[in-house]
From TrEMBL:
Gene3D superfamilies: Ribosomal protein L11, C-terminal domain (1.10.10.250), Ribosomal protein L11/L12, N-terminal domain (3.30.1550.10)
Pfam families found in the cross-reference section: Ribosomal_L11, Ribosomal_L11_N
Subunit structure: Part of the ribosomal stalk of the 50S ribosomal subunit. Interacts with L10 and the large rRNA to form the base of the stalk. L10 forms an elongated spine to which L12 dimers bind in a sequential fashion forming a multimeric L10(L12)X complex.
GO MF annotations, alphabetized: large ribosomal subunit rRNA binding; structural constituent of ribosome
Cellular component, GO annotation: large ribosomal subunit
Family named by the database record: Belongs to the universal ribosomal protein uL11 family.
Name assigned to this protein: Large ribosomal subunit protein uL11
Top-rank lineage group of the source organism: Archaea
Residue span, Large ribosomal subunit protein uL11 N-terminal domain: 5-62
GO BP terms in the entry: translation
Domain Large ribosomal subunit protein uL11 C-terminal: 68-135
Length: 158
């Protein structure tokens, strides 16, 4: 019976401390080897929280699969923002291009509730509302209305 450990780690900077160490220690595997492998696989997500799944079989062999960071982390990285706005309706902290929203939606499409790209992009833009980030210089809700009106179908139908 394989043991499975699922954790969120900082991209490229996982350590043997919590949450990894305490979860992996009792399984009797080389924690440092697992941490090194995770850091290698998550280096491209530097500065973001990345979901990681570690499977350990009966022979103490481990398999690591790396997920895609949360939508908010991807939006903040694309917009060049450290953290979201404390007052999203009043303070705007950054801007995300519609093309970047499409890219993020394509990355996350398998994990989203949406069935098509257009609705996935609308989910990403909806996340921008709570972060205080505009989309192509417009308030996210205005951009959603434009998408519903079909103004951006050339970019969104793919």
């Amino acid at each position: 019976m394989a043991e499975v450990v699922e954790v969120l780690v900082p991209g490229g900077k996982a350590t043997a401390g919590p949450p990894l160490g305490p979860a992996l220690g009792p399984l009797g595997i080389n924690v440092k080897a697992v941490v090194d492998e995770i850091n290698k696989k998550t280096a491209s997500f530097n500065g973001m929280q990345v979901p990681v799944r570690v499977e350990v079989d009966e022979k103490k062999n481990f398999t690591i699969s790396v997920g895609i960071p949360p939508t908010t982390a991807l939006i903040m990285k694309e917009a060049g923002v450290e953290k979201g706005s404390g007052e999203p309706n009043t303070n705007i902290v950054g801007d995300l291009s519609l093309e970047s929203a499409v890219t993020i939606a394509k990355m996350k499409l398998d994990d989203m509730l949406s069935y098509d790209l257009k609705n996935a992009v609308k989910e990403v833009i909806g996340t921008c509302v709570s972060l205080g980030i505009t989309v192509s210089g417009k308030k996210p809700k205005e951009m959603l209305k434009e998408i519903d009106a079909g103004n951006h179908d050339a970019v969104l139908v793919g």
